[in-house]
C-alpha cells in the first residue's frame, strides 16, 4: 500500500465515539446505520443525515436517532461535528461528494462501486492522500469473519500454493427503465452494482492488477451492461474468473484453488457465514473436508465499521485490509470491461 501526505496527519479520534454523517439515506444506509446503532454504539454514533428531501432525511434521522437532518448534502458536509461521512448515494454521485467532503476535512467511507470512472477514483484517492485524511471503499466482504479466516488459511498454506480463484454474483431483475439498476444516468448495470464483488474477491486473493483481461458480456436494449464474465490474468501465471448478471440468478459462490485442495465459500460469498476446506492426499482423492463456521455480527456491516473506527483512533489514512490501491485496481478492471462493451460513464459533477 502506498500512502503519502503533504500535510500534518489528522488528530486521531480518541476518548469519544466517532461521529458519523450519512449522505443518501437509502436501503444500504439503513442496514449500515442499524449495525452502527446496535453493534458499534460504544465506538460510533450517527450524528447527521442528509438527503435532497429534508422530509426523507428527517424520517431516517428519527428512526435511527440522528441529532440533525439536512435537506442538502453541503449542509451536512459543512457540519463541524461530523468526523466521517458515509456516502451511499448512486455511483455517479460518489466522486463529487467525496471531493467536497475531503475539501472540508471529512474522513470517508464510500459505497461500492467507489466511483463510475477510474479517473474519478484516482482524483478522490489523490485528494485524500494529499490531505492526509482517511478514505475507504465500503467493501464489507473483506471484513466478514469467514473471509478473514479464509485469508488466514490461504496465508497458512492450507490448500498449498493458490493457482486460481472464482466468484460469481447474479440476479434476475425484470427490466424497468425507472429502476436504478437499469438506468444509465445513475450508473446502472451489472458490473458496477454486482461485478464489483467478485472482482474485488479476485483482487483480494491474487493481488495487484491483471496483466491481461479477457471479457465477454452483453447489453440490454437500452445500452446498459446486463451480464459479464471476466478472466483475470495475474503476472505470475495465476488467474481468476468473475461473473455477474442482471439476467440470471447466479449462485453467488466463490472458491480458491490451490495445489493441495480448495476452499469453497457457499452462497452468498459476499457475506458468508461459513466455508469448506477440501484437502487432497495425493492430488486426486479428497483426504478431508473441514467446515469453518464464522457468522457475522448483526447484519454484517459492523465489521467494516469496526475497521473505520480502529483506523480513525490509530490515525491511519487507509485500511490495510481494504487499501485504496486495491480499490483503484478493481475500478480499472470495471472500466476496461465497460469500455469493451462500448459504455463510457461520466461522473455527476452537479450533485453538490
UniProtKB/TrEMBL annotation:
Matching Pfam families: GFO_IDH_MocA, GFO_IDH_MocA_C3
Annotated ranges, domain Gfo/Idh/MocA-like oxidoreductase N-terminal: 18-137
Domain GFO/IDH/MocA-like oxidoreductase: start-end pairs: 148-264
InterPro entries per UniProt: Gfo/Idh/MocA-like_OxRdtase_N (IPR000683), Gfo/Idh/MocA_domain (IPR050984), GFO_IDH_MocA-like_dom (IPR055170), NAD(P)-bd_dom_sf (IPR036291)
Protein origin, superkingdom: Bacteria
The entry's keywords: NAD, Oxidoreductase
Protein family (similarity comment): Belongs to the Gfo/Idh/MocA family.
Name of the protein in its database record: Gfo/Idh/MocA family protein
Organism: Aquipuribacter nitratireducens
Amino acid at each position: 500500500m502506498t500512502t503519502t501526505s503533504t500535510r500534518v496527519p489528522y488528530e486521531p479520534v480518541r476518548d469519544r465515539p466517532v461521529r458519523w454523517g450519512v449522505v443518501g439515506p437509502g436501503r444500504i444506509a439503513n442496514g449500515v446505520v442499524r449495525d452502527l446503532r446496535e453493534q458499534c454504539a460504544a465506538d460510533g454514533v450517527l450524528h447527521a443525515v442528509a438527503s435532497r428531501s429534508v422530509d426523507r432525511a428527517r424520517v431516517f434521522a428519527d428512526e435511527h436517532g440522528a441529532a440533525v437532518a439536512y435537506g442538502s448534502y453541503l449542509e451536512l458536509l459543512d457540519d463541524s461535528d461530523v468526523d466521517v461521512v458515509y456516502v451511499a448515494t448512486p455511483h455517479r454521485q460518489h466522486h463529487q461528494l467525496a471531493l467536497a467532503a475531503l475539501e472540508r476535512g471529512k474522513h470517508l467511507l464510500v459505497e461500492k462501486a467507489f466511483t463510475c470512472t477510474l479517473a474519478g477514483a484516482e482524483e478522490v484517492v489523490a485528494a485524500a492522500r494529499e490531505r492526509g485524511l482517511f478514505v475507504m471503499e465500503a467493501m464489507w466482504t473483506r471484513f466478514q469473519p469467514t473471509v478473514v479466516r479464509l485469508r488466514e488459511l490461504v496465508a497458512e498454506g492450507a490448500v498449498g500454493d493458490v493457482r486460481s480463484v472464482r466468484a460469481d454474483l447474479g440476479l434476475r431483475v425484470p427490466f424497468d427503465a425507472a429502476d436504478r439498476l437499469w438506468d444509465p444516468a445513475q450508473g446502472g448495470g451489472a458490473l458496477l452494482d454486482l461485478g464489483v464483488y467478485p472482482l474485488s474477491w479476485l483482487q483480494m486473493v491474487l493481488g495487484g492488477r491483471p496483466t491481461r483481461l479477457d471479457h465477454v458480456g452483453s447489453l440490454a436494449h437500452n445500452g446498459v451492461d446486463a451480464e459479464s464474465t471476466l478472466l483475470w490474468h495475474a503476472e505470475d501465471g495465476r488467474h481468476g474468473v468473475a461473473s455477474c448478471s442482471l439476467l440470471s440468478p447466479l449462485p453467488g459462490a466463490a472458491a480458491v484453488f490451490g495445489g493441495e485442495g480448495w476452499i469453497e465459500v457457499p452462497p452468498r460469498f459476499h457475506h458468508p457465514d461459513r466455508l469448506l476446506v477440501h484437502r487432497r492426499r495425493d492430488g486426486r482423492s479428497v483426504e478431508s473436508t473441514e467446515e469453518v463456521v464464522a457468522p457475522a455480527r448483526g447484519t454484517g456491516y459492523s465489521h467494516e465499521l469496526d475497521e473505520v473506527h480502529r483506523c480513525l483512533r490509530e490515525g491511519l489514512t487507509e485500511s490495510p485490509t481494504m487499501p485504496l490501491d486495491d480499490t483503484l485496481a478493481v475500478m480499472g478492471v470495471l472500466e476496461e470491461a465497460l469500455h469493451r462493451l462500448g459504455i463510457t460513464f461520466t461522473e455527476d459533477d452537479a450533485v453538490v
